[in-house]
Each structure stands twice: as structure tokens, then as C-alpha cells.
Amino acid sequence: MPGDAPLGLTIDILIAVMFFGMFIKQIQHRDWSFLKNPISIMIIIWISYNILMIANPVATSRLAWFYTVRQVGFLIVLYFIAVYAFDNLNSVKTIIKVTIGLSLLAAVYGLSQEFLGLPSWEMKWLRSDPRIYKLVYQWGKIRIFSFLSDPSTFGILMACMGIMCVVLSTGPFEKFKRFLLLLSGMLMLMAMVFTGTRTAYVLLPIAFFFYTLLTLNRIAIAGFVVMIFFGALLVMMPTGNPTLYRFQSAFKPSKDASMNTRLNNQERIQPFIQSHPIGGGLGSTGNFGQRFSPGTFLASFPPDSGYVRVAVELGWIGLFLYCCMLFVILKTGISNYVRTRDDKIRTLYLGFLTLLFALSVANYAQDAIVQLPLSIIFYLSLAALVKLKDFDKSKSKYSLY
């Protein structure tokens, strides 16, 4: 829920304390084996590149670099903390339970906003800022946002976590746990619908297609075909319902004015990206650009997409490194999934992989990966991809590392 509390600073302090504790332990034990994997190496390269960009001669503000590194780079430290802390399977399961539990709580509150309405104090906050009210109130109804800062972030969170819950519900767990996972997933996906987030709608078929490719399961293939069939009916049917109309517009990008605007902006910025291999400097676009470099060309450019922001601020070299990092993440996760023999751990890999793939896709339409709490979930999921294989009691002789 938005407010005046310094949530970002609080998270930074907690991460700093945990990292300091990990560092003290490492002085005693001197075991850095948890860094010897492809994902850690790529993240270290990515962090190093971002740090070096303080010397970007084109950048108009060093202060903008500091704030952006704090927002984008500091949370990456959480990955290293999690890789170190995940020393048994129960620790990973605990993170999964906490994440699903908090997401379910957000979904339930979001649904209460839809069916019971916003409380008076929340409506007062909403009407206090015309910019926020315009974002939330569209097509004659309020887009729910639960405890989060905006409907888009909430919608993507519900899509990713809802998909993960559905995937986990197919695993070899107790029937009651599978039922709870499926119920939680359905509630999250239901909440997602009322956020009016087009990106979240598109993630559903894309993520389940990815899951179907990984498993090549007959039931999954049949389910995907059925989903596409009924989804196509929903897209084509005439409607006056604002929620359904917004859902339909997500699959008709040529008729979506906001998507056309984004594509035009991307075409307009291409000459700059091509002529600036290391970009215009971290924090040169978006809110930080308007705050620290007002009046400049990049400050007035709305990046929208996470990939576009990276290309503009860090250049096509930075975009190449960023895409390489995401490729290594998915490749490593898929390799570990294939080599794992324990069915429960394989299901956990499927859940994390599908979630990470969905976030990678969402990052094209939104700057999703750096948004709280999506960024926290992203880095914890990376750590799980690295560590889960170590808990496979029926270890395969085909070890990745």
C-alpha cells in the first residue's frame, strides 16, 4: 500500500545487515563455493558494468547514477545472501511458503477492493493526487492495486505468483497441499483480472506455453489447447464490460493506442542507442531523469520497457550483457531441471523457471524486474535455481558443476 514510510530505505538497511552478517561468517569459514556457478558470474559481471558507468562521459548527473545503482544494483545483493542462506531444502520451501502466503494476502485484499469497494481513507489518498487517480480509475471503474503502489505491478505479481501456484499444484505433493496451491493460484489470477493490467493478461498463455514446452506432458498440452480455445472466444466476443474490453485489447496491440505510442517512442530512440554504445548514463530517463537532469532529451523520454531503459541508460553493450544474463539464468535453470531426478525438486524448478520466464517477458512491456516486490522475488528465485539441485538425494551422475 502506498504511503510516506521509507520502505526502500528500510529494505536497504535489512539487506546491508544480512550481507554484513554473511561477510563476517565468510571471514571465519572462507567458503566461496556458492559463487562458483554461471548465474553468479553473470551477475557479478552485470554489477561491475553498472559500477563502471559512474565514469560515463555522456552522463549529466552522477547523483542520478548513485540513486539508480541503489535501486537497481543494491537489491542484487539479496541474491548472494539467499544463495549463501539456502543450505537445505526446507529453507527454500520456507521462502516459497512466505512468498505465496503474502501474495495470497494481497490477492484477497485486492478482491475485497473489487467487490466491497475501497475504504474511505484509501479513496481519500487516491483522490489526493490527480496523476494516481487517472492511472487507477479507467473505463468507469477502479483498477485494484491491493497493498502495492500501482495496479500494473500488482497485476504482474498476481500473474507470476498465480502461474507458479498452478504449476506447483501439479507436483507430487499431498492432495491437501495441491488443493491449497490450486485455490491460491485461482484467487491470484482472479485478482489479476481486475487489475486491468494488459501485460499480466498476456503472460498467462506465454508462461503456460513455456511450461508445456518444458514438460511435454500430454495433459499440459491438452490444457494449453483448451486455454487458447476459450481465450480466443473471450477475445473475439462483443462486450460492453470494461474489464473484459481491457482484456481483449491486450491481444489486439495494433488497436491499442498506448502500445502504438510505446512502439513509436522505441523507434524514435533507436538512433540514440545505436550512436551511444554505453548509453546516456544510469538514471538519465524516467523519474530520476526528470529529477536530476530536467530539460534534457533523455529526461523527457518515457522508457516504459525495462529492456529499453537498459539500452538507453547503459547502451547496446549494456543491453547485450543484460540479455546474456537472462539467457544464462534460464539456461542454467533448465539444465538443472533436466539433470535433477527428485520429482518434488523438479516441480519446484518448473515453478521458479515459469515465474522467471514470465517476469522476463513482462520486462518488455514494463520495467518489471526492478519493481518492488517483483525484484525481491526475482533474486530469491535465482538463488533457488542455483541451490535446488544440491538437495537432490538421488543425484544424477550428470552434474552441471
Topology:
Blueprint: H1 7-29, H2 38-52, H3 62-73, H4 77-85, H5 89-116, H6 120-127, H7 130-136, E1 137-138, E2 141-142, H8 151-168, H9 175-195, H10 198-215, H11 218-236, H12 242-250, H13 257-275, H14 286-292, H15 306-339, H16 343-365, H17 374-387
Antiparallel strand pairs: 1-2
Word description of this protein:
The chain has a two-stranded antiparallel sheet with strand order 1-2. It has helices at residues 7-29, 38-52, 62-73, 77-85, 89-116, 120-127, 130-136, 151-168, 175-195, 198-215, 218-236, 242-250, 257-275, 286-292, 306-339, 343-365, 374-387, and strands at 137-138, 141-142. The protein is built from 17 helices and two strands. Mean pLDDT is 86; it is low at 1-5 and 396-401. It has 401 residues and is mainly α. Strand 1 (137-138) and strand 2 (141-142) form a beta hairpin.
Helix content: over 70%
Low-pLDDT runs of 5+ residues are 1-5, 396-401
Major sheet size, sense and barrel closure: 2 strands, antiparallel
Strand order of the largest sheet: 1-2
What's the total number of strands? 2
Secondary-structure class = mainly alpha
**Shape call:** globular
Radius of gyration: 21 Å
Number of helices: 17
Beta content: under 5%
| Distance, first to last CA | 42 Å
Q: How do the helices and strands follow one another from N- to C-terminus?
A: HHHHHHHEEHHHHHHHHHH
Arithmetic mean pLDDT = 86
